[in-house]
Amino acid sequence: MSLVYFSLWVIFNGRVTLEIIIAGVIVSLMLDVFVKKYLGIKFTGASFMKCMKLLPDALFYIIVLLIEIVRANFAIIKLVLAPDIEVEPCIVKFKTGLKTEAARIALANSITLTPGTITVSLEDNELLVHALNRDIAHGLEGSKFERLLMRMERLSHE
C-alpha cells in the first residue's frame, strides 16, 4: 500500500525532484504504518482487487454526484430568484436499504453536498434530512445515489 501512497504523492506534487521523492517515501511509509497500526486496516491482494473492481462504479458515482450538484444549484437559483415561488422548508425522515455503514455515510454525505439538503442525522439505516423545499425532499428516498450505492454493495460482496 505504501507504493500506492507514494504514487499518489508524486502525482499530486506534479513534478519529480529528489526532495519530493525523499519526502514521499517518508510520508508513504508513515501513513502505511499509521493505517495498519491505529486504524487496523490491512490491505491484501484480495481487498486491492475488490477496490479495483469497484473503481468504475465509484467513478460513475462521482460523476452522477457532480451532475446532481449542478442540477440542484440551478434549482436553488430558481427558488431564490423567482419571487412567485414560495419556499417550504421541511424535514424528511426515511429509511435506506443500504447494508453497510460506509454506504450509508456516503449517502448522507452526498445528500449534504447537494445544495438545498442537509443530512441532520443518520442512525442505523434511518436518515433525517432538512430540505429547502418539498419538491427537493420528494426525490430523497430511493434516489440515484442510493441505487448506485446498493449496486456497489452488491459488487463488493461478490
Please explain how this structure is put together.
It is built from 6 helices and 3 strands; from the N terminus they run H-H-H-E-H-E-E-H-H. By secondary structure, it is α+β, with helices and mostly antiparallel strands. It is elongated. The mean pLDDT is 86.
Helix-strand layout with pairing:
Layout (H helix, E strand, L loop, with lengths): L1 H12 L4 H20 L7 H37 L8 E6 L5 H13 L3 E7 L2 E6 L2 H5 L5 H13 L2
Antiparallel strand pairs: 1-3, 2-3
Helix pairs in contact: 1-2, 3-6, 4-6
Biggest β-sheet description: 3 strands, antiparallel
| Helical coverage, percent range | 55-70%
Spatial separation of the terminal alpha carbons: 23 Å
Q: Which H/E pattern describes the elements?
A: HHHEHEEHH
Strand order in space, largest sheet: 1-3-2
C-alpha Rg (nearest Å): 20 Å
Structural class: alpha+beta
Helix count, DSSP H or I runs of 4 or more residues: 6
Give the tally of β-strands.
3
The shape is elongated
Mean pLDDT: 86
Proportion of residues in β-strands: 5-15%
| Uncertain runs | none
